[in-house]
Amino acid sequence: MTDLKIKMKDVHKAFGPKRVLNGFNLDVPKGQSVVIIGGSGTGKSVTLKCILGLMDVDKGSILIDGKETANIHGTERSKIMRKFGMLFQGGALFDSLPVWENVAFGLIHGQRMGREEAREIAIQKLASVGLASQVADLLPAELSGGMQKRVSLARAIAVNPEIIFFDEPTTGLDPIMADVINDLIVKCVKDLGATAVSITHDMASVRKIADKVAMLHEGRIIWYGDKSELDNSGNPFVDQFIHGRAHGPIMTIGAAQAA
Amino acid sequence: MSESSASGIIQHFGTKRLLVNFMNFLASVGAPVLRFMNATGKLTYFAAQSVINCFLPPYYFRSVIRQFGDIGYYSLPVVGMTALFTGMVLALQSYTGFTRFNAEGAIASVVVLSITRELSPVLAGLMVAGRVGASIAAEIGTMRVTEQLDALTTLSVNPHKYLIAPRIIAGTLMLPLLVLLGDIIGVFGGYLVSVHMLGFNPHSFLSQSWDVLESMDVISGLVKAAVFGFIVTLMGCYNGYSSGRGAQGVGAATTYAVVSSSILILIFNYILTQVFFS
Ligand SMILES: Nc1ncnc2c1ncn2[C@@H]1O[C@H](COP(=O)(O)OP(=O)(O)OP(=O)(O)O)[C@@H](O)[C@H]1O
Ligand SMILES: [Mg+2]
User: What pLDDT was estimated at residue A173?
Assistant: First the structure.
């Protein structure tokens, strides 16, 4: 059996009466790239925040490198946090800091690196996401949405984390840049030996970056398998999703009304 | 069915009604009380956490210095203007009032004591609550809403140390400085009006002010200022940090920050005055 980097078991998370995760199980093997797919609002981002410890779970266990981390806080949590890099869905760049300092933030404040050295690494990382060094001194608000996303990606990988989470890394990018980012994610996993958990709605991206694919529906993983099995999963939910059909077992409001 | 058992039933339902009403009454009193206790508890915990983190490393000197500028330096015009006009108006008012008792001579004392003990700290506190408290709440609230606080945590930086401690330190240290300047400007305002409009002798105004002033008057004002600075920045940070989702959440956080810090300033002003001068 391969090492598991992350193991989530029977995780429950609700916001008031709204149950988002409801018996969620997921195994992420070390050094692999797992992609979570699923409809909008099904709780994909919430899943990542639970693993990161940004949200407490109501019930269940989250093992990271075999250690229980669910609802851990304080210094224990900061130790685990050092293993993580995260690309937030909305970018979440610090808008009062210039671009380079955003990218170098984890190096300067987390790893206590000198500012000069950190700036150089930041500029390298910016180049790897296709951004010229001229943007380094701009403020995030002066960039386009897609550029902000790439800065955010550079920030996530700047600290060379063991586990990287990508929440919709390619939304808002043109197809060419999306492919560059896909390559970059693959490179992080293959070259740096990182473990990646990504969320995406972009099937081209899934095919490129995934080793394994997990489909989230109604609070749990309803299908989990290798990327190669995706096309003949025999799961009607997965089929509907990957082919983007409005009609099928996953009911959208519009389709339900039409039926 | 006998009559007595019927009245028994009525009586039974009557007491039950009464009981239900009583419970409803208790609930309507209890819910806000519980909410108040809950909020107070949360705020106290937040305050303790913030204060502890002001003293624990790592220290973010860069952020502290930046906040000195934002909270201290940029509040100078507002605080200065407030103090100047307050001093002027005070001289004018006490002149028109005191001539009725032939007590014009007391104007200098009134101006200098009111300014240093009360008006400079309280008005500076309230002005800074509007300017700084609101902007802190809006900034941190926006960071909450746009997941920047989550991003900080993910990058192994404690928001209490990086964002909140520098603001609280800067608020607590800068407000006394602002108030000290406000004292000087306020007395100067009183001087301007007394000497140039009311025809007082400049020398006697100044010497009278100086004679009546005791160091405790100034010190008490500065201590008040430190407390108000702490209150303003704490309430700004707390409301921003616990901001609800969306633009509406940030708007509400900003309002709460200003209203709650203004009220707390007035309450603590009374308490501190009582402590100092009783
Ligand atoms: N902090 C929160 N408070 C209350 N409800 C929340 C919170 N965060 C998420 N939710 C709810 O949880 C559900 C799942 O949200 P989540 O952001 O995980 O969706 P998602 O799967 O990432 O969707 P998308 O693909 O659109 O990003 C949503 O219905 C959302 O309203
Ligand atoms: Mg999401």
Answer: 85
B158–A88 C-beta distance less than 8 A: no
Q: What residues are neighbours of ligand 2 (ion), with CB under 5 Å? A: A 45, 89
At B1 the pLDDT is 45
Domain boundaries, chain B: 1-33, 42-277
Query: What's the gap in Å between the CA of B152 and the closest CA on chain A?
Result: 9
Q: Of chain B residues 72-111, which have a CB less than 8 A from chain A? A: none
Supply the pLDDT for residue A139.
96
Residue A255 has pLDDT above 80, yes or no: no
Average pLDDT over residues A120-135: 92
A109 close to B (CB below 8 A) = yes
Q: Give percent above pLDDT 70 in chain B.
A: 95
pTM greater than 0.90: no
What would the DSSP string read from start to end of chain B?
--HHHHHHHHHHHHHHHHHHHHHHHHHHHHHHHHHHHHHHHHHHHHHHHHHHHHHSSPP-HHHHHHHIIIIIGGGHHHHHHHHHHHHHHHHHHHHHHHGGGT-GGGHHHHHHHHIIIIIHHHHHHHHHIIIIIHHHHHHHHHHHHTTHHHHHHHTT--HIIIIIHHHHHHHHHHHHHHHHHHHHHHHHHHHHIIIIIS---HHHHHHHHHHH--HHHHHHHHHHHHHHHHHHHHHHHHHHHT--SHHHHHHHHHHHHHHHHHHHHHHHHHHHHHHHH-
